[in-house]
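Appendix C: a fully annotated inverse folding record. The material below is reproduced so that readers can follow the format used throughout the book. The structure is listed first as tokens, followed by the designed sequence.
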């Protein structure tokens, strides 16, 4: 048996209210990560507490509680978990707001699968 294959699979919480966007992320990452899905910021907080994921991919525009608010709430509980914003909004003002809320990094949609994987590896290795 290969001893270096015993690393536990990293858990990734994906906060995304758009089903097709979520399915795309799932297709890109499901071989390497255990994916937990949340459809809004409120559910993101619940599932963060429930599953203690290793990292979070956070959409900005979601119903009930947006990604910035959810990021701020999670930062009150955990200052070091990687929170990577994935958003269609690429304005500097959006990135600035996300940084102030406490996000670790910022990727723009449409998502680049290679960049997504590299970004996660950077924070999770």
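Designed amino acids, in order:
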């Amino acid at each position: 048996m290969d001893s270096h294959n015993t690393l536990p699979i990293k858990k990734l919480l994906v906060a995304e209210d758009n089903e097709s966007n979520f399915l795309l992320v799932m297709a890109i990452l499901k071989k390497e990560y255990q994916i937990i899905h949340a459809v809004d910021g409120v559910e993101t907080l619940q599932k963060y507490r429930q599953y203690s994921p290793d990292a979070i991919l956070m959409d900005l525009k979601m119903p009930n509680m947006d990604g910035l608010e959810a990021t701020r709430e999670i930062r009150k509980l955990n200052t070091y978990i990687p929170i990577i914003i994935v958003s269609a909004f690429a304005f500097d003002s959006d990135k600035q707001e996300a940084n102030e809320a406490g996000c670790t990094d910022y990727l723009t949609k449409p998502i680049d699968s290679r960049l997504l994987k590299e970004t996660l590896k950077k924070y999770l290795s």
